[in-house]
TrEMBL record:
One of its GO terms (molecular function) is dihydroorotate dehydrogenase (fumarate) activity. Belongs to the dihydroorotate dehydrogenase family. Type 1 subfamily. Its cofactor is FMN. It is found in: Cytoplasm. This is dihydroorotate oxidase (fumarate). Its EC number is 1.3.98.1.
């Protein structure tokens, strides 16, 4: 199967990318994805202006049997200069996306101005969804603030830019966010981030599983697949065709990848299962996907991508 996919100025030869936050904190982790069989691209940890340690621990819990996770990481990262050094001074085998975040609009703008002034020429991802920073609402749930930020960003930023979105749960919200995003020359959207403010309880101790925010955290893994598919599908129906979609959420096997393609995904990002299984997950997912293609007689991604069937 030819998996070649193009987003803006970048060409991808496999479908898979790590989700920002998983296997991307350090140079060493980023290199593991660069060298992983069947990886199509690498994305850096969402970078703030300065290094952040994130929330107190325990802040992550995984149920590997159920393929589910909950986390309240709090944007731990080594700062924009660390990741800029990585993308500019390392030999990159794969397209490498630079994830940017800010705890206020000024920090977002300052970070993007630093990228604009650099020699980085790849895709930039503006993270408008971080559910696990106490006292900070998810920007992309505030439609007026989202438009204001994008107005200010595109007043100066000329490199290919995508946005990371939270999950939406209402048809009206799909309409509203798409109407905003369609007004800008976005290269792609990445949907979805973790489903915010879930709660997991230890049945042995009756205690929450993570410490920050009294146990509230972002849900990931198998449990969020239906929500992720709905967001990919709804956005693909509403966004201009030139805005590509990176699908994130609920990917544990090849069928999940296939379903995201049916809903219109151009690339597929893996988070929780990558954390559970490690970088070998991409090769397994591609093998399972190819088995589905062979069983269905599919020889071209155009036979699948966006071809979800409805009930007449």
């Amino acid at each position: 199967m030819d998996y070649t996919t193009k987003i803006a100025n970048q060409v991808f030869h496999h479908l898979f990318i790590n989700a920002a936050g998983v296997y991307c904190q350090t140079f060493e982790e980023l290199e593991q994805i660069q060298n992983a069989p069947c990886a199509g691209a690498v994305i850096t940890k969402s970078a703030t202006a300065k290094e952040r340690s994130g929330n107190s621990e325990p802040r992550y819990f995984e149920n590997s049997v159920e393929h589910n996770t909950i986390n309240s990481m709090g944007l731990p990262n080594l700062g924009i200069d660390y990741y800029l050094n990585y993308v500019l001074k390392h030999s990159l085998k794969l397209p490498t996306l630079f994830s940017i975040v800010g705890l206020c609009q000024k920090e977002i703008i300052d970070n993007l101005k630093k990228l604009q002034a650099s020699d980085f020429s790849g895709l930039t991802e503006l993270n408008l969804s971080y559910p696990n920073v106490s006292g900070k609402p998810q920007i992309a749930y505030d439609f007026a603030a989202t438009r204001e930020i994008l107005d200010n960003v595109f007043a100066f930023y000329s490199k290919p830019l995508g946005v990371k979105l939270p999950p939406y749960f209402d048809i009206a919200h799909f309409d509203q966010i798409a109407a905003i995003l369609n007004d800008y020359p976005l290269a792609y959207v990445n949907a979805i981030n973790s489903v915010g403010n879930g709660l997991v309880i230890d049945p042995e101790t009756d205690t929450v599983m993570i410490k920050p925010k009294d146990g509230f955290g972002g849900l990931g893994g198998k449990q969020i697949k239906a929500t992720a598919l709905a967001n990919v599908r709804a956005l693909r129906q509403r966004l201009h065709p030139q805005i590509k979609i990176i699908a994130t959420g609920g990917v544990t096997n090849g069928r999940n990848v296939y379903d995201h393609l049916l809903c219109g995904a151009d690339l597929v990002s893996v988070g929780s299962q990558l954390g559970i299984e490690g970088p070998t997950v991409f090769a397994r997912l591609e093998k399972e996907l190819e088995e589905i293609f062979a069983d269905k007689g599919i020889t071209d991604l155009r036979q699948v991508r966006g071809k979800l069937k409805l009930i007449a």
